[in-house]
Amino acid sequence: MDMEKAIKETHAYRCLDCGKCTAVCPLARLNPIYSPRLTVERALWGGDLAHDRLLWSCLTCEACSERCQSDVTYAEFIRHLRTRAWEGGQSGECAHGGALQTLMRMMTKNLEQNRLGWLRRGKVAERSDTLYFVGCLPYFEVIFQELDFPGHKVARSTVKALNRLGITPLVLENERCCGHDLLWEGDVDNFCRLAELNLQTIEESGAQRVVTSCAECYHTLAVEYPRYVGGPKAEVIHISELLAQELPTPTTSRRSTKRVTYQDPCRLGRFSGLYEPPRQVVASLPGVELVEMERNRAQALCCGTSCWTNCGADNKEIQVERLREAKATGADLLITACPKCQIHFRCAMSDEKVGQEARIEVEDLVVLAANAL
Ligand code: SF4
Ligand code: SF4
Ligand code: SF4
Predict the structure, then answer these.
(1) Which secondary structure element, helix H or strand E, spans residue 153, and what is its range?
(2) Does ipTM top 0.90?
(3) Which atom of ligand 1 lies closest to the CA of 64?
């Protein structure tokens, strides 16, 4: 994409130079040379940003766009700049030595995967109207075993929750990574390869509805696939939406035995506007009470890093800040509807220097719901 088109599509040309974006940006508060306002200004003045290392630091959280009165979609603007930089041979600094990016690119090839080893008691079918898109949970379980990340538990809980709703889903042996992280890193070619492979498999399955348990898979399949590869025809729905539709309406009379607080994942909240379904799910669970963090819904603080790129001291600080905010609610449990939020929070807490005021148990919403069903 050329720069002119990027500026037009993201409304960057409307920028008023007000600086509200920089004022709310969690990174700019920690790094005085980081400024979304200045990045837009430099682009508008024809500056060459391809070699700007800070391009890869943006969390793509859209907290800035929430404040922008000119409707500049800054995260998308950054994505376009990254794509141009990527095409020119630049890239961000991969966390974990690039293992996750390598895995994603391997999935663009013709390969055989053992993707269903996690399936135990849950009921799945060879054909079904509902397809459960598992995403990279089975890989994350292995890669992040030192963090005790329970990827299999999230997948099993999703199948259990669907079964309890009377749905026997189809799960795919040859599903690929949704491609979210490659897209946001600027590697559009490999993103499109993954998207086309997934699209073909979804269409061949005959499913009418695709359920995800990951906020990023959800947004990628529902919004980016139609934009880049023209599909899927099937409806895409996050498990929290489905549970909110199907679970009983909450009553206020139940005594609570567990207090939980909720992390709005950026792709589910600010990007998709799905603030209420996860809260409705919590409200319908017996004995569970939701206590909100000070910054919630559109004002929620990001979990601190994105697309396994440029994760450093500032990111850790943001994660610890958010964990402190969660702990300050007095909740027993921090729940989220995105596996990656959970991984990043667990990672932050694995640092022994992190004090008790930022330590809280983290769980996926679907695990909490499935345990109660
Ligand atoms: S908030 Fe919007 S208008 Fe203001 S400087 Fe940032 S991008 Fe420009
Ligand atoms: S998307 Fe998030 S991290 Fe990036 S500039 Fe905006 S507020 Fe800052
Ligand atoms: S916070 Fe996330 S991206 Fe950063 S090192 Fe930890 S697991 Fe990796």
Answers:
(1) helix 151-164
(2) yes
(3) 1
